């Protein structure tokens, strides 16, 4: 079985990693660490979005490498992947299907009210559309 840990760049990623490593050990599963670097819409001359996107990609790559080291220290070998796109939820669900994941472990920021209505819930979209079981860490 493969366990896909979907990591973001928040403090919650530590808790996600702990649960993903624990599950990988219990299930004797392969651990795959995924971070999505979000693309920004092209704003032309208003803002250098390419520079922002590049910085986000580099930060995501560093986060994946750090997470791999955490997994290794816990005795679990992990593969690290960085995807880039506009919709993290869609990319996570798609990648879980591609690798045949049996479990997705991810965090939830717990947005409420108008912020959740306007932005949607990445975790909610993944739970709804995932091709496998999903463990949401709060």
Automatic annotation (TrEMBL):
**InterPro entries in alphabetical order:** Rossmann-like_a/b/a_fold, Universal_stress_UspA, UspA
Could you tell me where this protein is found in the cell? Cytoplasm
GO cellular component terms listed in the entry, alphabetical order: cytoplasm
Q: What is its main location?
A: cytoplasm
The segment(s) forming the UspA domain are 2-138
* Keywords assigned by UniProt, alphabetized: Cytoplasm
Q: Which family is this protein grouped under?
A: Belongs to the universal stress protein A family.
Annotated PANTHER family: STRESS RESPONSE PROTEIN NHAX, UNIVERSAL STRESS PROTEIN UP12
| The protein, known as | Universal stress protein
Organism encoding this protein: Fundidesulfovibrio magnetotacticus
What phylogenetic lineage does the species belong to? Bacteria, Pseudomonadati, Thermodesulfobacteriota, Desulfovibrionia, Desulfovibrionales
């Amino acid at each position: 079985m493969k366990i896909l840990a979907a990591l973001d760049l928040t403090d919650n990623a530590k808790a996600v990693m702990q649960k993903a490593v624990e599950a990988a050990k219990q299930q004797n599963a392969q651990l795959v660490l995924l971070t999505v670097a979000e693309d920004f819409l092209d704003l032309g001359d208003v803002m250098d979005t390419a520079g922002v996107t590049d910085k986000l990609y580099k930060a995501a790559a560093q986060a994946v490498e750090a997470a791999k080291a955490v997994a290794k220290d816990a005795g679990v070998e992990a593969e690290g992947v960085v995807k880039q796109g506009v919709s993290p939820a869609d990319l996570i669900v798609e990648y879980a299907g591609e690798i045949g994941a049996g479990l997705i472990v991810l965090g939830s920021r717990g947005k409420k009210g108008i912020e959740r209505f306007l932005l949607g819930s990445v975790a909610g979209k993944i739970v709804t559309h995932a091709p496998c079981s999903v463990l949401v860490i709060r």
